[in-house]
Design goal:
The protein has 5 helices and 6 strands; from the N terminus they run ααββαβαβαββ. It is α+β, with helices and mostly antiparallel strands.
């Protein structure tokens, strides 16, 4: 949670410290379910020099190929979650994904986070490279939404900004705050791809 502690969308969806504490348990439960899901890759980066602590994690949704039927296991949200904000943002995000990559198969980075004490040491890059290599192998795109501040990381790895998305949120003083993210896409070059087997 340290990686997302000041994110305005997270604070709007999970508005109290108690709800955010409960969210940590929900995330752990979902991560365990995702580990057993063949359409999900949960990656962790550990610091061997610090007792093997997890310093970064990522969740990649694998492509759903034509003819496959797949429904991701549902989240269980903590009591007190602002479901109206959560559902509206989900609609914004899913609409953007469809506009950017369409309905065809793609890899999708749904979560990535690095402990702020370990930022800028390459941990997130390792998780991004996993997805990029799979995209190149399968010759399909990767898609993600990012905070504006994290955008340069994705651009350094060959992702291109495709669309900005936003939603007005209620701030901590009940003022209106425009929350904004950027949708990025990675498209493997034809010369670097290999056929899917």
């Amino acid at each position: 949670m340290a990686a997302f502690g000041t994110n305005a969308m997270l604070l709007a969806q999970f508005p109290t410290p108690t709800i955010r504490e409960q969210l940590q348990l929900c995330i752990a439960t979902k991560a365990l379910a995702d580990i057993g899901d063949p359409k999900t890759a949960v990656l962790v980066v550990r610091d061997d020099g610090r007792g093997n602590d997890v310093v970064s994690f990522a969740k990649w949704s694998r492509p759903v190929w034509e003819g496959e039927v797949y429904v991701e296991p549902a989240w269980s949200w903590p009591e007190g979650t602002d479901l109206e904000v959560l559902d509206r943002w989900t609609g914004v995000v899913e609409g953007a994904k469809e506009r950017v990559v369409g309905e065809g198969p793609c890899y999708r980075l749904t979560y990535i986070g690095t402990d702020p004490l370990h930022e800028r040491r390459g941990a997130a890059s390792l998780s991004l490279q996993w997805g990029i290599q799979h995209c190149i192998h399968d010759n399909i795109p990767a898609y993600l939404e990012s905070t504006v501040d994290a955008g340069p990381l994705y651009e350094r790895h060959g992702f291109a900004a495709a669309e900005k998305i936003s939603m007005v949120l209620k701030g901590t003083e009940n003022e209106s705050v425009n929350y904004e993210e950027v949708c990025f896409v990675f498209r493997p070059s034809i010369g670097s791809s290999t056929a899917r087997t």
